[in-house]
From TrEMBL:
The protein's name: Cytochrome c
InterPro entries recorded: Cyt_c/b562, Cyt_c_II, Cyt_c_prime, Cyt_c_prime_subgr
Source organism superkingdom: Bacteria
UniProt entry keywords in alphabetical sequence: Electron transport, Heme, Iron, Metal-binding, Signal, Transport
The species this protein was found in: Paracoccus fistulariae
Matches recorded under Pfam families: Cytochrom_C_2 (PF01322)
Presence of keyword Electron transport: yes
Gene3D superfamilies, per the entry: Cytochrome c/b562 (1.20.120.10)
Signal sequence extent: 1-18
Amino acid sequence: MKYAVIATALAAPTAIFAQDAEDAIEGRQGYMSLISIEMGKLSGMAKGEIDYDEAAAAAAAANLEALTNYNVAPLFAVPGTSSEDTSESATLPAAFENPEGFSAKLADLKNAAAGSQAAVTGGQASIGPVLQQLGGTCKACHDDYRKPR
């Protein structure tokens, strides 16, 4: 009986950690999906695939601004959640090995999104420069910290 209690006590942190890892990966994927949805709305308008709607463009940009203010970095700091640890993750080990560099990329995205709500108003042509700025920061981060698809 004593050994069963010890074994359970030792296994409990592992089970809790495993859940935390799953939650971290799920949280990261959800966060990136939300960014993708809002970028997709703006991209569709910029390309003319979606009719330009100033209110909808401003709402998408406002959502991007809000998302980039969320402190997502802790979700990328959970050990055992890199693309080398699990096929469920696209995050390269470099994000864990260089947390300062990764955090700098997140700060770049936040800076790129700042003011985008106002910047996408005034017509379809106003969206392109905002997308270039946001897309450039997304690409820079993905180049260094995301597994190629």
